[in-house]
Amino acid sequence: MFKNEIIKVVSEVLGRESKEIESLIEVPPDPKLGDFALPCFTFAKELKKSPVEVAKELENKLKVRVKFFKEIKATGPYLNFFINEVKFTEHTLKEIETKKEKYAFNTSGKGKVVLIEYSSPNSNKPLHIGHLRNETLGMTLINLFERNSYKVVKANLINDRGIHICKVMLAYLKWAKGKDPDKKPDHFIGDLYVMYSKNETPEIEKEAHLLLKKWEDKDKPVRKLWKKLNSWAIKGIKETYKEFGSKFDYIFYESQFYDKSKKLIEEGIEKGIFFKDNTGAIFAVS
Fold first, then answer.
1. What are 242-262's pLDDT values in tens digits?
2. How far is CA 38 from the centre of its chain?
3. Most buried of 18, 19, 21, 75, CB within 10 angstroms?
4. What is the CATH number of domain 2-86?
């Protein structure tokens, strides 16, 4: 509606085709410059005036003719338009009331596919307030793309391996061995992680890293414990997903790609893409 008003009024004032004006309208890189901008270089040559003069003249002529903009301001060779937020809100609410479930629906994404990965928690604690934001943004984007006829692939990558998981495993072995969850299982796992943090010492940290090394070496008892604790955490997380309404077409786990990624990193080191420092840490330089 707002863009159409610019096209209509500018076309009438300059005696130009609507399509030409539409092709010239831009969105400024900085919102402080307005919601829409009309460069006046094209008109300057034919009117035999500078673009700055043309922009200023248009500002004066359009001020009394537009309805939906709170300000029209010439800034150099550009004519900048600032939307009236009250008019915008009124228009939006009226559109929603009129179109109801068909509001904002179009077919611009028909035949296109978009992948949206969201949530992606760690399996060492329950979802927290940061995940609530992540879930909301992910689901909002999914709804918007689907309303625009895109085929949306909803994916989730759970970080289910690493030192943070081994800290939970060590806490279980030291202070809760043999105990089953007595509450929502991801909260039970989260309590173990807190327990580790409260009792961590340099010696205990070494034990956690030893567990990680054993996991990487596919030690059977360690892998068995890892699977049990992970299953509890993920069970609880999925319960939260169901309650909140989060849906996924695919759930991937970092542990599924660990061996493949390790090989790729080793190849990267050989080719000079990645580098190893004197502590053994691997990094990339752009």
1. 999 999 999 999 999 888 888
2. 31
3. 21
4. 3.30.1360.70
